[in-house]
Amino acid sequence: MSATIQSIEAILVDIPTIRPHKLSMTTMGIQTMVIVRVKDSDGLEGLGEATTIGGLAYGPESPESVKITIETYFKPQLINQPAGNINTLRVMLDRSTRGNNLAKSAIESALLDLQGKRLNRPVSDLLGGALHQHVPVLWTLASGDTRKDIEEALGLIETRRHCDFKLKIGARPVMDDVRHVAAIKEAVGDSASVRVDVNQAWDEATAAKGMAELQSAGIDLVEQPTPMKDHAALVRLSEKFHLPILADEAVADAKDLYNLAAAGFSGAVAMKIAKAGGPVQALKQAAVAQAAGIGLYGGTLLEGTIGTAASLHAWSTLETLHWGTEMFGPLLMKDDIVAKPLHFHNNGVDLPQGPGLGIEIDEDKLARYRRKA
Hints:
This is Muconate cycloisomerase. It is a single chain. A seven-stranded parallel beta sheet has the order 5-6-7-8-9-10-11. A three-stranded antiparallel beta sheet has the order 1-2-3. By secondary structure, it is of the alpha/beta class. The chain folds into two domains: 4-120 and 362-369, Enolase-like, N-terminal domain (Enolase-like, domain 1, 2-Layer Sandwich); 126-350, Enolase-like C-terminal domain (TIM Barrel), CATH 3.20.20.120. The protein has 14 helices and 13 strands. It has helices spanning 63-78, 86-96, 101-119, 123-126, 146-158, 174-188, 204-216, 231-240, 254-262, 273-276, 279-292, 305-315, 329-332, 363-369, and strands at residues 5-22, 27-40, 45-51, 134-136, 139-141, 164-168, 193-197, 221-223, 245-247, 268-271, 295-298, 344-345, 348-350.
């Protein structure tokens, strides 16, 4: 008889960041994670995580709403169900609950971790097998201070921790942002790739002006310059410039990407397991991108180690990540809640080893940072 799900717990965890992390819509000083623990009738436990950027300033789900969704709506459906039939459980949740992909991603990740531990295989094996044991990782320069960002970038290049950088822009006048970015690119030169993330802050006219300037400054990629629902603007801008556009908020799942590609978009897509509803769903998006000739990028919602590991297992199965990944979330936090942190080195991170996600909780750290009320 197959093991059944016996308990599900969703825990809010608050960890300070190493510095203020500025985005166009908010500034983060604390990252809140929802840690999901799923236990089965054999006593095994699967771990998952859901995280967002700046709460409701970023999107329609917050950590608090994810916790409520899992405990109030998902838990009653999942208890006593066969733990290994992940597809059946996903379809069941999709039929009963619209959207809420962050919550679904945490559950899918936990079920994959549980299945991997049961079979004594890594999650990457469950997804077809890892092609890479080391995945490239960029770093986001988001202090907002040009001098500090240059010092930070040069230090990271020297230690070979990162050689690609993304800059969060869009909160200031467009030419102020351009001067900030151009100065950093000039400082690092050809030793590093510099990209920008506008987080939907520009209208199409502003984006056209900004992209022309950024193209001249030698920037390699522009992420989501216009609002998420304005697909037509992304298509027009991608046709106008040879500076590639990275679609992020505009693309949640495989169907979104198909529609954007069919409309004529060329460039790249930021895959995120949280947006897609889990690692399996994110890889469906990757298949559409590969068929359409759209570049792949492993995106993050600044997850901690558990969510980052779930993403890494998915990205490791892809032959080519044209633009690398940004799985640096754990490095942005002052502390961690796992027994063994991920190993970041040589401009990337190693795929964690062992059954499931290869991650174990540090119970003392979890108790320290879990939200009490």
